[in-house]
Design goal:
The complex is a heterotrimer of chains A (about 290), B (about 160) and C (about 800). By secondary structure, chain A is an alpha+beta fold. Chain A has 3 domains: about 10-55, Uridine Diphospho-n-acetylenolpyruvylglucosamine Reductase, domain 2 (2-Layer Sandwich), CATH 3.30.43.10; about 60-175, Uridine Diphospho-n-acetylenolpyruvylglucosamine Reductase, domain 3, CATH 3.30.465.10; about 180-285, Enolase-like, domain 1 (2-Layer Sandwich). Chain A has helices at about 15-25, 40-45, 80-85, 85-90, 95-100, 105-110, 115-120, 125-130, 225-235, 240-255, 265-285; strands spanning about 10, 30, 50-55, 65, 70-75, 135-140, 145-150, 155, 160, 165-175, 180-185, 195-205, 210-215. Chain A has a 5-stranded antiparallel beta sheet with strand order 4-5-10-6-7. Chain A has a 3-stranded parallel beta sheet with strand order 1-3-2, covered by helices on one side. A 3-stranded antiparallel beta sheet of chain A has the order 11-12-13. Chain B is built from 6 helices and 5 strands; from the N terminus they run E-E-H-E-E-E-H-H-H-H-H. Chain B has helices at about 20-30, 85-90, 100-115, 120-125, 140-150, 155-159; strands spanning about 1-5, 10-15, 50, 55, 70. In chain B, helix 3 (about 100-115) packs across helix 5. The termini of chain B are far apart. Chain C has about 800 residues and is α+β, with helices and mostly antiparallel strands. Chain C folds into 3 domains: about 25-35 and about 505-650, Aldehyde oxidase/xanthine dehydrogenase, molybdopterin binding domain (Aldehyde Oxidoreductase, domain 4), CATH 3.30.365; about 35-375, 2-Layer Sandwich (Aldehyde Oxidoreductase, domain 4); about 400-490 and about 650-805, 2-Layer Sandwich (Aldehyde Oxidoreductase, domain 4). Chain C has 18 helices and 34 strands. In chain C, helix 9 runs parallel beside helix 17 (about 760-780), helix 13 packs parallel to helix 14 (about 570-595) and helix 16 packs across helix 17 (about 760-780). Chain C is globular. The chains are: A alpha+beta (about 290), B alpha+beta (about 160), C alpha+beta (about 800).
Chain lengths: ~290, ~160, ~800
Amino acid sequence: MQTPAPFEYDRATSIDQAIGLLEQYGPDTRLVAGGHSLLPMMKLRLAQPGRLVDINDLDDLSYIRQEEAQIAIGSLTRHSELLSSPLLAQHWSIFAEAERVIADPVVRNRGTIGGSLCQGDPAEDLSALVCALRAQLVIRSRGGSRTVEARDFYLGPYETVIGPAEMLTEVRIPIHEGAGSAYEKVERRAGDWAVVAVGCFVKLDADRVLDVGIGLAAVNARGFAAPEAEDRLRGQPATEEQLAAAASLAAQHCRPQADQRGPEDYKRYLVGELTRRALRRAIDRASRGGA
Amino acid sequence: MQVTMRVNGEEVSRDVEPRLLLVHFVRERLGLTGTHWGCDTSNCGTCVLWMDGEPVKSCTVLAAMADGRDIRTVEGLEKGTQLDPVQEGFMREHGLQCGFCTPGMMMTARWLLDHNPDPSEHEIREAISGQICRCTGYENIVRAIRWAAEHPAKEEVAS
Amino acid sequence: MTVTDAAPLSAAGNPIGFGRMLRKEDARFLRGQGNYLDDIQLPGMLHGAILRSPHAHARIISIDTSAAEAHPKVKAVITGAMLEGLKLAWMPTLSQDVQAVLATDKVRFHGQEVAFVVAEDRYSARDALELIVVEYEPLRPVVDARRALEPGAPVIRTDIEGKQDNHIFDWEAGDREATDEVFRRAEVVVAQDMLYPRVHPAPMETCGSIASMDRVTGQLTAWSTTQAPHAHRTLYALVAGIPEHKVRIISPDIGGGFGNKVGIYPGYVLAVVGSIVTGHPVKWVEDRSENLMSTSFARDYHMHGEIAATKSGKILGLRVKVLADHGAFNGTAQPTKFPAGFFHIFPGSYDLEAAHCEVTGVYTNKAPGGVAYACSFRVTEAVYLVERMVEVLADELKMDPADVRRQNLLRPEQFPYMNKTGWEYDSGDYGKTLEVALDKAGYDDLRRRQAEGRARWRAAGGTPEHPEVGGEHLMGIGISFFTEGVGAGPKKHMDILGLGMADGCELRVHPTGKAQLRLSVQTQGQGHETTFAQIVAHELGIPPEDIEVIHGDTDNTPFGLGTYGSRSTPVSGAAAAVVSRRIRDKARIVAAAALECSTDDLEWELGRWKVKGDPEKGKTIQEIAMLAHGTLELPEGVEGHLDASVVYDPPNLTYPYGAYICVVDLDPGTGQIKVDRFIAVDDCGPRINPMIVEGQVHGGLADGVGMALMEVIAFDESGNHLGGSFMDYLLPTSLECPSWELGETVTPSPHHPLGVKGVGESATVGSPPAVVNAVVDALEPFGVRHADMPLTPAQVWLAMRGRPLRTDLAVS
């Protein structure tokens, strides 16, 4: 079986101490929580950090709570907790829908929202989700916190704005009363990374789209989002025709690459089809009171 | 580094390299070879054991990360000489052939039934969907877990 | 008693004979007490790891192992150059070729073995691999089998003197002229190209070996994940020159084999070399990438099929051309006379006038192998070919594929049937089995619902150009009818490297009537410890719990070629029955002596010889066992004790068959396929333990879903292996598998002593075409006649648009 190269290990007892260790030991140090992205890379020896800082004991990073018009999610919150959260289910069906198709139940017991987002995998479902909902990400360093828009978090595949002595601590999800959301994913098999996945939310004013967010996974969309499609739809009546127009813009503007999951044109097609399906279901939910 | 944890109810302490994977720790340092490994990418689930009461893939956990935690492996399923209903179900419904995925499957099954004593076929299939079996086509694993659901141990009924 | 009667129950509640019986082996597996290879730890044991080639084709310029050797925990670093000195750099394959143990001149596939490190622990061994520096000069690879024979293609096997191309063999079967004649006069001829892509058995336990060479005694003990311990012993003797009586192979519990654990891999030989060099036991266990990239793959058959028929759908002939990709070394494991395995059973279950196939094997820059993954020596490819061709014909004639099969299946009165390529099918009542399956599926109702669904889809505006209409899905129904020939095999036709495919078996009945049965075959989950005890119980009346089945240790079992190709029950199962009958015959003599009567006065009832006409008077097998070991005076020439041994040379293969029906759901908006139902009606003769037979079928059906929908090893243009982990090589999970619906018919084999037929691979062989036929059927509104496996969402979507992919190459 594959095994990681040697490294030093620390168990962090506080956020500040964890950040202190990152500062002290420099960019060769990595935080580890669930470990389901990092440890396989280390076993393949594609990643060889000199030191791991285990943050699993930082219970104060594990929460899902409402703070005014936002839901605050601690970065150490596990996928399984996101899947079963009544608070998230009440406001955003997209969470449970996406989580149900992320990896598998046992992996979801360990994997965290912070780890998933920071890995920056272009096919990460949660990245598409937080970008669809225009979440904000709270990043801590010794000097304090900064907040970035989820859509500005990613610099490219496997690259984020997180600095070497910084740590993602919280994901802030806006609450839009009455909005509807949905997640659509095509995968080759349960637990596989997406061929293409699309998440969205829609807020209606009567039959008109008041606001909309569309997130795309696995197609190299800038900021995991489809802003052209959103712009096209915002203010328009929520008709099939408008959805189709928006979906076709989403398909046009993403940058999928051919791989064993499918050729470029299929993925582009799927973006269109799944965007329509997700929007349709989100609108249906919005028209029936939301979630 | 020194790690100390409870394994199947007993405290164990060993000196390990930080990089030692939990699956190797329980198999090679503790001799509990019922937990297997079958891949390197957290896909197959033959290494599933419980950490702090939840099934995890022990090929993707460091022994260091398990320091101070509670571990339960397949060797901890049987109570005295009384098989767990899940073990009994796997035997009665022929839920195993080569036996390699079986410990991981049973650990997940036990957890499922602890949290959902009467799971539907689909709920069972979903619960084990991160664990590959090449022999059974899953049919009899599903039946085995249903058998266990229908035949809970006496103390489970009492509680 | 006949085999279908219900057996009486023992005190422990087990059938004394055939019937559902819980498995004896489960007790240890359920408690985590199995003993798999990697569970074994020996005192002083070292760990090996293999450095593998990052290139598909490259010349090795230099290998620098100095840094690795300097690692404090490293005990040895072995290279091809060192092995050359020991004459161990190359080893024979099971197909009369050679394979590099460690590359010397050049590497020939991505993942090939280049160097071997032995260290104190497995982590250090892996660390040391990173310290070895190899300089390569990359060469142009042969990735596409269809271009391997082109003039100017790079020659892979430059090690073979005078080799100027990548050709391995040409082979044919059937009657070419008769077939051509049938095709000339046929009203309808349809052709179809199809690929059975490269897949991998991927058992949950990877391959490995622990070698322990005793320098003083010269004794080699190797614990190996092998389905064929005796064959391995002989091969070790041939490869390493170690005298065969000093070699002991122990096959512990095996975590699934499926043909992956038949051959000898370089890692096994390297563990031996490592032990010789270091004087310690050396363990080598593959990681998953090594398993998927270097050990025995399966299939990779590029097939061109032609079918000739009348306008009314009577099949007249089949003509097939195959290009077989064998990888860089010809390492397929099959009876030596048959380089394409049993592919020539491709006329299948049909009554036709003539058939002919030509197979050409080629080298490519890919891992060696080809015969594995429960393929019954390539019956898998044959069944896929014929079952797709029948569908293609049905499509051409616009006939219901069930009717085409009804019209063409062999009839019961034709058995035993000599087919057009030389196989004598032993028994069958095919039409009945098909009807049972169709009934069970509710076939007519399914077709009606399918027509209604298509009408709804069309009414909603569904067309090939606009497939997505209001979420309407389309149903597909696929049938497959397969015939296998399993239980290799008659020695006069079948051997592997000169070793005849007969199996030994020994039975010892101890004084108290408890028995030990020693087998040459090796379970990998098939339940031999239970089934074979039931066979002895059936023949002797000894309760199965009183019979210990011993296997997997060459020092403690008779010679035989092992478990693969569904051969255990057809060959060793027969041996177990025959050896039990020998014991029964001897028991009769003992009983007669004890009862002071003639053997002719005795008749057998299960577990007892009794006096004809005086049923109270008799001796149980247990009483006889004690008498046989006691002081009773036996007739002249009759030795004491109650032991026997046999070697069983089967007169023919057994021919299990079945009718499978798959129902799929197509989402035409995404190309996603869901298997909704799968009906499998198998006829493997009487079932010794129906529970185990059903389990075998279940597993094979999942294989079929996997191969049809997701499993594939493709290569990019540089020859990089694109399926090197379970993230890329997808196996079906519980969510892709429906609840299987099984049925049976029972047609005993006339030549097997128990009437039974092999079943271990039936479902793996029979199910892929059912799934593919169902998907293609779902795509009928798009005019699709064929698309290659795996039918991933992308492949289905492309097929809907008339441009399905070559699935063995990288997607572009």
